Amino acid sequence: MWADLRNFLLKLSENLSGSAEANSPAHEDFDQMLLVAHYYATRSAAKGVEQLVTIATKLSVSLLRHTMLIPADRAFYEAGLACKAVGWENMAFVFLNHFLDLCDAIDEGTLDTMDHSDFSDTDIPFEVPLPTKLCVTIRDWVLMVSMDNRLEQVLPQDERKSYEASLVDANTGLRSPPCIITGYPVVRNKVDLSSAAANKEDWNKFLMAAKTNHSPECQDVLEFISQWCGGLPASRFSFD
């Protein structure tokens, strides 16, 4: 489903590029939808391959950046559960706790009382459309871990001293390109594509998994990236 939507949106974007609507706000909106559909399609492919579970999790985390377009409650719920499954418990706690706050906001019909302090130095939006229906609840787990002193309600930082999944450096304001495979910022050790970039480690991991597992879904993702970004690196794998 996501791959079909992704392919449709790419054709739509290409058609808009050759029309009077090129680079218009509507064109930019469709490009954002295309990126979101690509993330979902890639996540779906990665979920089917055991070696790519962390890439699927990173994609769930990256999708939080796009909660202006996708239901915020489900996005935080899925990101929280994905982080919990791979042992990223601090992130899981932050995301699932925010999911519960969103549930309360949906009940109240307003976001006015939401606490966004956990995301103050990230590119996760505060003002998002308020969903009208609740997703499932995981309140018991959040209450349990809130009593666990080993966990901190804090998001992990990278070498920039910024939230690791934020494209924007909280200290300098510089924006890094998103990895075409995970949506995480490409800060260094990158693979250059014609119109995109990837983090080398995740790029190589995805290529290797696609090759060794003979996954048609992963191969489809690579074929789409080649079409969308103007080809793949000549050597495919990058070890520089």
In short:
Helices cover 50% and strands 2% of the residues. The chain has helices spanning 2-17, 25-47, 53-62, 72-85, 89-108, 139-146, 200-213, 216-229, and strands at 190-192, 197-199.
Keywords for this entry:
8 helices; 240 residues; 50% helix; two-stranded antiparallel sheet; mainly alpha
**Taking strands numbered 1, 2, ... along the chain, how are they ordered across the largest sheet?**
1-2
For the residues shown, what is the average pLDDT? Answer: 89
Flag low-confidence runs.
none
- Could you give the count of β-strands? 2
Radius of gyration: 18 Å
> What assembly state would you assign to the polypeptide chains in this entry?
single chain
Could you explain the architecture of this structure?
This protein is mostly helical and 240 residues long. It is built from 8 helices and 2 strands, in the order H-H-H-H-H-H-E-E-H-H. It has helices at residues 2-17, 25-47, 53-62, 72-85, 89-108, 139-146, 200-213, 216-229, and strands spanning 190-192, 197-199. Strand 1 and strand 2 form a beta hairpin.
